[in-house]
Amino acid sequence: MSENINYEAIKERDSEIFNYLSLEVERQKYVLNMIPSENYVSKAVLEASGSILTNKYAEGYPGKRYYQGMANVDEIERIAIERAKKLFGAEHANVQPYSGSPANAAIFYALLKPGDKIMGMRLDMGGHLTHGHKVNFSARFYKSVQYTVDKETQMLDMDEIRKLAIKEKPKIIISGYTAYPRKIPFKEFHEIAMEVGAYSMADISHIAGLIVGGVHPSPLPFTDVVMTTTHKTLRGPRGAIILSKKEDRLANVDGLDEKKAKLEKNLARKIDRAVFPGLQGGPHINVIAAKAIAFEEAMKPEFKDYARQVVKNAKVLAETLLDNGIKLVTGGTDNHLILIDLTPLGIGIGKEVAVALENAGIVANMNTIPYDPSTPFKPSGLRIGTPLLTTRGMKEEEMKIIGEWISKIIHDYKNESLQKKIKQEVKELCERFSFY
Ligand SMILES: *Cc1c(COP(=O)(O)O)cnc(C)c1O
User: Fold this and answer.
1) CATH architecture of 49-298
2) Could you tell me the end-to-end alpha-carbon distance of the chain, in angstroms, rounded to an integer?
């Protein structure tokens, strides 16, 4: 990595930042990064993110801006929009959201009034903060109803979710999670939303790359609104997009004249206006260019191979862990992530085990497990994933080796000499799979 990426100007200008940047280059090079929400972007995506497009202000949308000098950036944003629509099969795309959380805020702002009811999965079951968690804006400005996973199977129970939706009559039903290792039945979610008169919303931040790679069912074209971050399995820059239907199925046009009724039914316009001027200012055109490049990369046949390999790797990793007596939430995985249940070894030891793994050069994160007997600050689970290792070119053979290492460390997580020994082996493996 260091041969090809140099930060000469930073080195000259700011030695403090340069120091940590260099250390981070080394860290990324020599650890097995298994945080399922991260990825390594291509050099082209990296270049676009750091390009001179960062200098340009572009409030508004292509052809409807508030500043001059838009000839090039208009084209860049248009290309990004067209590619996003094509990649996902969407009727409408907004490529301006700064990140996933503000994109979700924009969706609620577009479709709901303060105090309306939203329904999403509980954070400690694998949901996201912005899906109605009590400390988040999504539960302060809206009424939040939360569903869970089944206690036995640890999977979605669509009958229970339907019952809750019928009882609570939310205005929007959110599917899509941060720590759910199984397939999501988007069609059923949409049908429930239709039945109770709610919007359907799918937040596919974690699995967008798997969806466009054809290894996870897509919520398009039927779901009303779909949000995805661009920086997780999709392997683009840090940011998000909103995909939607053109028409607002639930628009209330009673008493409106024809012109107003037409605007009220225009879902695409509502989303765009919520992003800007509703919530954001100038879009980050440098990041939009990087998104466009990432969408193009994701349309290539190689990306399908990548997505398939991500899932294959996760399956082999899960099997290796199971063979070594490690307990997994839902007993396995269908996607890119695995949630390890550490309770047979101790309640609330997620952090300790994550630190033990990092000492061995394996980077993961502590996580709650469904119905965790401990607290979110001291959870009993560990979340790992294969997107980054797969980008580095690792396959089943490496997953078996890594699965053995992880199992050994988990079973003996206070053994520091074991961690040290494995760290050396991790370094050697990383050297064989360089990137950049
Ligand atoms: C990552 C994620 C987000 C938020 O993305 P940020 O860019 O971190 O704001 C939202 N929803 C889900 C399901 C996610 O996984």
Assistant:
1) 3-Layer(aba) Sandwich (3.40)
2) 5
